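Hey, resending since the last one bounced:
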Amino acid sequence: MAEKTKVEDINRNIYDIKNDDDYDFKMQKGLNEEIVTEISKMKNEPDWMLKIRLDALEMYNKLELPTWGPDLSELKMDEIATYVRPKSGLNTSWEDVPEDIKNTFDKLGIPEAEKKSLSGVGAQYDSEVVYHSIKDELIKQGVIYTDMESAVREYPEIVKEHFMKCVPISDHKFVALHAAVWSGGSFVYVPKGVKVDIPLQSYFRLNSPESGQFEHTLIIVDEGASLHFIEGCSAPKYNKVNLHAGCVELYVKDNSYLRYSTIENWSKNMMNLNTKKAIVGENGQVDWVTGSFGSKVSMLYPLSILNGENAKTEYTGITFAGANQNLDTGFKVIHNAPNTSSVVNSKSISKDGGSCTYRALVRITENAKKSKCSVSCESLMLDDISRSDTIPVNDVRTDEVEFSHEAKIGKISDKEIFYLMSRGLSEEDAKAMIVRGFAYPISKELPVEYAVEMNNLINLELEGSIG
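The structure tokens again:
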């Protein structure tokens, strides 16, 4: 590839602002029964939750590390603190949040976004939610939006019925780890027929080095209801490995709709091993919109299980890998009922030797006659030292389906750059325009503030002189 299309690495500016590692309590590093019991005790949890944690710890010790994806040998649990309690309780006013924590969220634009375009916000710092709010009109309609710890205490029957049921603890080693040491996260229940027109958002910020974040998000959208939920994540850069192993469980009931949007901007020392699943009922629909930036290693494959007739899912995602990044992402869908449909639109960009892998599963069962699935996977490499792989598994068990899969991998064309330069653009602007155009189908699916954030992240990744 010509030298002129080389770009500097990301200048992470606000995302790398770090506060002193000044916490109220930090668990000793490692993982054992005493640590898990201590986390539960500190949270005053009921016995049934402690039992789930201890069962999960036992499962974690039995399960092997995955061997089919990126190398995880750098991750050593005896060097990770699984619980860090910040010097802040749960607040309903930003004014009550400690100054250094509040300043971090101010710089990330969360309070401002709440005023302009959100109907509720949860903000987590290290292992605990430090701020949570919901607009009064939603409360009057019966919408519940609270932190996960409060939900365990205040809505135990609903939590018991759904917690780790969509994602069983035996799923894989990091789900078992999550269930053993989870802390923080958000709980949402939207009652039958209620349409939440303005999005809710939870933002997860990891500050403490050599620690893990294990937030649990549980969302139930009841029959005929609708919701748009936004998840934001970031962390400053440290020299030691940090771990993110959150879990998202989504229940989309009959005739209901959920859009789940994520912008992840972890630092380049983060292992991002997240798990997200949705169970969708008759005529229900779940749409996933995902932008994955940052992290040293990512393994993330949201799953939609289409259990009801006419259930639908769409996945729209973009991944951007730079130097020393191995981002292994994709999507899984299981068609379990007739006339179900899925649309997958995945894009990846790699540069400076970064590696992007699209890993996917489409399973159409014998019950899913007259179902439709369309998969499009495009990769753009900005130089000749980067890597892009597509590893799809298509498991179709009935003939009565419409199924298509297309994959394209390419480089930025010197001809395109030359053409745009002949129209008066600099080489840098020409290249950035091509990359933004490539990413546009993803950014147009986000609310405007988040589309702007994603474009800013792309610009930061491309920043620097060309040539």
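The longest strand covers residues 371-381.

Sorry for the duplicate.
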